[in-house]
Every structure is written in C-alpha cells, then in structure tokens.
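This follows on from our talk about sequence and fold. Go ahead and set the record down below:
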Amino acid sequence: MSYQNLTKHTPYLYYFCTIQNIISILEFGILSRNKAIDLGVFKKDYDWSNRQIQLYRKNTSIALSSGKESSVHDLVCTFFSPFNTTIYKAQEILNIKGGEYSESSIVIAINIEKLLTNRDKAYAFSDRNVGASAENVNYYNSLSDIDKLDWAVINQTYKKFDNYYDSAFKEWRDKKSSEFLIENIIEPKYFAQLLCISEDTKAFIQKNTQISVEVIKNLALY
C-alpha cells in the first residue's frame, strides 16, 4: 500500500489544539478552518494564528490526490512530528496571553495506516510549511514523492542555533514544519493517542474519551 511510503518515516500525523477545543474535536473530528466556521464550532478567542499568514493560506490553492484544487482553509493541516516550531510558536503565544501553556496544549496523534486506507480521503503534502514564501514551497499529492521531504530535519527533536533570525534557522524551521493536508475532516476514529504536558490536562481529557492519553513533559519544544 502507498501509505507505507510514509509510515516508514513516521506512524503518525500530528495536530495541535488547545484544551478549549478538544471536546468539540472529540465530538466532530478535526475540521478544516472553513468547515469549523460553517458548523459554528470555530472559536476565534482561541485562534493563535497570524492573521496575515491565514489570509495567505486562505488564498493558496493546492491540487489534491483526487485531482481537485482546494484552498488550504478547506484542508486539515497536520504535521509529521510533534516537535516543530509552528507548535512551539503557538504555545509561546498562548503563554503571552496568560496562563501556563502546559495546561492548554494538546497534540493529537493520527494513525496514518487507518487514515490512508480510506480511499475517500483526498490529500496533499508540502516540503516546507505552507506559510513559507510561495517560491520555496513544493506541493505533492502522491505518496511516491514522500521521500522528497527532508526527513533528517523533520524527525530531529531539537537543534540549537546561534542565530534564530538568520536564513539557516528559517530554512530549518520551514522544513521541520512541513505539512500533510487532508480534505475537510479527520474523524476521531483515526485518533491513535492524545499527547499533553500536564497531569491535570490528562485527567481532564480522560473524563471525555477512551482514547489513550500520554504525558510528555517536553512536548512540542524545539
């Protein structure tokens, strides 16, 4: 099966959310931005994303494995690793807004094999973060191209840089946050595990689901 081209690198895809969103996600699944807005479950108060980047993503169209062209806002955007700079940046913003991000952060691990044996799931993926400059991002919609991504960078948990503002870090950052995009929705039946940082968050989640929950103290830190 073609999904094995991907699972040789990672068994899971990862989606970041906050504790304020997890209940609706467990009920409705992970929705694309547009679908969440349509269903009235998008919580603007807990949207940590940059407005200009979201405008860019909204106007970015990607060809999917089905042959259809879709706006990024019609896609669920996941990562190949829970350790990446996009998730870290989200946590940083949450921390600035107040409260400990450890109490808010949840990463959903999604079973790739189950997800991609469903032939109805149209997808695409990128070799850099979709929010990076357009001329630097390559998009693919066949898993035969999965090895074109920089897996040495993606699967690296941590790398120290002397300068976090130069081109070397930005190149590493964008590759590390490469994305796998699924059309419209990822249902809860594809969730393999929920990852969080605090025992209190774990206890809260376990009251609302039978899905396995694991505490990882350095989750998402790069």
Remarks:
- The chain has one domain: 4-215.
- The radius of gyration is 16 Å.
- The chain has a mean pLDDT of 85.
